[in-house]
Amino acid sequence: MCGIAGYVGPRNAVEVVLDQLKRLEYRGYDSAGVAYRNGSALKTVKRAGKLTELSGLLGSKLPVSHLAIAHSRWATHGAPTDLNAHPHSDQSGRIALIHNGIIENYLELKEELVREGHVFQSETDTEVAAHVIGREYDSGVELDEAVRRGVRRMRGAYAFVVASADEPEKIVAVRAASPLVIGLGDGETFLASDIPALLPYTRRVIVLEGGQVAVLTPAGVVVTDVNGASVAVHPFEADWDIESAEKGGYEHFMLKEIHEQPDVVHQCLLGRLTPDNRVVLDQVFSNHVLQDIDRVNIIACGTAYHAGLMAKFIFERMLRLPTDVFYSSEFRYGDPVLSPRSLAIFVSQSGETADSLAALRLCKARRIRTLGIVNVVGSSIARECDRVLFTQAGPEISVASTKAYTAQVLTLFLFSLHMAQVREMPGVRIKETVAALRKFGDYVQDAMAGEDQIKGVAAKFKDARLVFFLGRGADASLSLEGALKLKEIAYIPTQECPAGEMKHGPLALIEPGIPIVFGATDPDVREKLASNIKEVQARGGHAIVITTSDDVTLGAITDTLIKVPQTGNTYLNALLTIVPMQLFAYYTAKALGCEIDQPRNLAKSVTVE
Ligand code: AGP
């Protein structure tokens, strides 16, 4: 997500941290800032926009300083403005703080501080963190102790870096979840959110673990836990080249992003579940409005459209709420019939897709309520929708969408649970579902365990001239997304449809050796699906069946069986099948030598019709 840089030592610190931020630019950001030691004070310079904007403010002759921290922000709380950019300061103005991640209880902390007379400049949770730590610092303790005390008051998944005007050679860093790495030099110490920013300076690296606090000085680093007990650290030599370091050691961004999904699940759920297993979505419409909705229209393109199909299944099954899903390009020219009590939901990773934006404007012109499910904060769709739920998946770089899809489905699922609470749906087991959601990140991680098996399956079928993707119910919507992944990066034609449709035409395409990928997680239709499996096998097709770990029936009739964990929830079981399907597409494309992150003819963000 956001980029973090820090330096203390004899070099020009401002120059070093700006160079570090530049090396993190590939992650995407929308504002940047730096705080550096300037005489006996800390000076902060920050600006919305790209690094060139910040450099312009700093001038061509960079200030000379031997301690600096810097940040490139990818907005999550508050728009990408100068004021919301990092670093932020405490009430006294003595400390500067940069931050990645989310502080879940920041509103509660902010109220407490406001009651004590604190004044805030921005809308960010980061500024609240600066004030919490500043308040501890005012009691006379050293900066690292103030950070430890402050952190004990905060909940969430985050990393902070703090410097004080009163401690000229010290940077304090704390990791609760978001990554932080420290680089050890000779009489100098570096800090970053990601290894590529360290490599030009040093290859001796320490990866900070969750719950650790690091005190950086030119002499090196001392690490403790949040209670101050010392922790042994083990530096290693990072032998990656810079290009592979940007991809976190993975060969492609797509593989990195597939593997980020367990963490994306945590990020997406952060701040949205209560300790007593309910859903809180403060950003959506009032309960009165949500009770009034009589129909939902979901409008999106590509992968986001597929997330919408899954949501239709959930809204209709769980909420009994009539839902239609439209391709944006069809909706905008289709003269749609829109109920004045309907809700239009726009799903978009980039928030800039031209057809989706035009469809949104059409709904607004017709005075229809609009809700965005968007990844990029500050994007056009996010700005123009009446309400937005951010998917919190972090920047997605590979053209083939993977982690954004998982986050879109989860966000829509959270919205449906929120609706179920508001509309008091008696049959919806909110608490059990939320409990399953809490474990979902771990289940996604477990689903990765089948990676080697899938690599083998991909190698076996890489020369297939056609691949089928079939399923029933929720699995049918997932199969569309699995097929899109394969065709867009491996250029293999696919046929995808509900399994029950096969006999009405597509069955004619089955030939000996053709692989058919079945999503088969729903026990209610398992018998029907077993018949579909037999039908394709009778014509020489090779059935690759993805089912849950507890299934005991499909193994006996399947050519290749891939298992995903049983989550205890029908929708989440189906969603898990995206992991093997994404890996199948990736390894097939790799075996064929395709250009994975930049597939031919496609762009990440389709801003033209
Ligand atoms: C899928 O892998 C594609 N990148 C594409 O289908 C994408 O989902 C579609 O263009 C919509 O983009 P958006 O989510 O940014 O609106």
Q: Can you walk me through this structure?
A:
This protein has 609 residues and is an alpha/beta fold. The chain folds into three domains: 3-246, Aminohydrolase, N-terminal nucleophile (Ntn) domain (Glutamine Phosphoribosylpyrophosphate, subunit 1, domain 1); 250-438, Rossmann fold, CATH 3.40.50; 450-609, Glucose-6-phosphate isomerase like protein, domain 1 (Rossmann fold, 3-Layer(aba) Sandwich), CATH 3.40.50.10490. 36% of the residues lie in helices and 22% in strands. It contains 21 helices and 24 strands. The strands form four sheets. An eight-stranded antiparallel beta sheet has the order 3-2-4-1-10-9-11-14, covered by helices on one side. A six-stranded antiparallel beta sheet has the order 5-6-7-8-12-13. Strands 16-15-17-18-19 form a five-stranded parallel beta sheet, sandwiched between helices. A hairpin with a 2-residue loop joins strand 2 and strand 3 (41-48). Helix 10 (302-319) packs parallel to helix 14. The chain is globular and about 80 Å long. It starts with a strand and ends in an 18-residue tail after the last helix. 52% of the residues are buried. The model has no long low-confidence stretch (mean pLDDT 93). Bound molecules: 2-deoxy-2-amino glucitol-6-phosphate. 2-deoxy-2-amino glucitol-6-phosphate is lined by residues 301-304, 348-350, 353, 356, 399-401, 488, 605-606.
